[in-house]
Amino acid sequence: MNNNNEDIPEPVREQKPSKFFGIEMHWMPAEGYAESNKESLRKIAMHQILQISKSNNLDAMIPYAAINIFDRFISRNEVPRMLGEMREDIVLAADACLTISWSVRSTSFSYDEFLEADNHEYKDTDARVVRKVQLVAMEQKIDVGVDWRMRVATPISFVEFFVGIIPIGRGIKRRTLNEIVIQTQGDISFTRFLPTVIAASSVFTACRVMFNDQYYREKENMIRRVAKYVDEEDLEACLEDTYKMCIEKQIMLERDLESADWKKLEEEINRRLETSSSSSSFNSISNRDEEDDPQGKIDPDMNFELKWMMLSSEDPEERTINFPDIRTLAPDLDDPSDDNRAGATTSFRELCNTLIAPFRSCSIL
């Protein structure tokens, strides 16, 4: 798999924020996606990605990036016609987004391990070979569909930066801030916000819940500090949505210091609020979410339950999809005028049959 990593600057902590802010649009789905009719596809994909992530005990960053790849791809492209049935093609696309994300995040990724967890049907050699071919073919379509941008600046990339200019946030565990950011992925409405807005909103929300008095006393000052980097109206809208999400999903927030050290932290926060300048005193942005995990170990700051679908009583597997609204009608295989399109589907099937033929011809002694 060829990944275009030109979007991500070198992980140097002292880089100017502008180098990251200038590329955050690469994270965004197409405009209007949050209000589109593709939410049905997203829920089916999310259901599939959650199931496999849980089976493989993956850290939260892998499914988080997978859903973003799906959003960016599906918001600009039709569902590729690979297997014929719409639902099967969506599940295949979701699987491919997860394999892309997993292989970028961890060098321990294995298709065999993935298929082992995905479905018992793939324990059969023929089925496993066919599925690998299908996955690789879908990965290639997705790679092209997102302009080969597999690693982009995410909201997690900006969390540490906003903690730097909102000192109250330094009293909150990084795992807590990561979880708030990642749990927003469960709601398609958050896809309309830039990564910087989601990152800032997550820090603000954690401060509001955990340090309520300080938050309301310093809120105007905090907004002035971040106004240079985010749209204030977007921030206010995102703040309300993020706060409601934290309450509804009962996200557990943790302080970074023991209560015995809290007085000292308060004094430090007040001193920084009085003397620091947001434009010059804090200028680092974290690239931690982009670091590979060679051993496939779970990052403790990314180890929490994904609650993306916990409030939904609907089973995505039973969700009805309005086909004409999502992609064009399938070609009529008996229609001579559709020879090219029908041939493309037939060729893919023939490719799968060709690849598994050697396995079928082998006899087991």
Describe the protein.
38% of the residues are buried. Helix content is 53%, strand content 0%. It has 365 residues and is mostly helical.
Distance between the termini: 36 Å
- Helix percent band: 40-55%
User: Strand percentage, roughly?
Assistant: under 5%
Low-pLDDT regions: 1-16, 276-290, 336-346, 358-365
Helix/strand order, N-terminal first: HHHHHHHHHHHHHH
The shape, in one word, is elongated
Briefly note the structural class of the backbone.
Answer: mainly alpha
User: What's the total number of strands?
Assistant: 0
Radius of gyration, CA atoms, in whole angstroms: 23 Å
What is the topological layout?
Elements: H1 18-21, H2 39-56, H3 61-74, H4 86-105, H5 111-118, H6 125-145, H7 155-165, H8 174-183, H9 195-210, H10 212-226, H11 232-248, H12 262-275, H13 323-326, H14 339-361
Helix pairs in contact: 2-3, 2-4, 2-5, 3-4, 4-6, 6-14, 7-8, 7-9, 8-9, 9-10, 9-11
Brief account:
With 365 residues, the chain is mainly alpha-helical.
Features:
elongated, 14 helices, mainly alpha, 0% strand, disordered C terminus
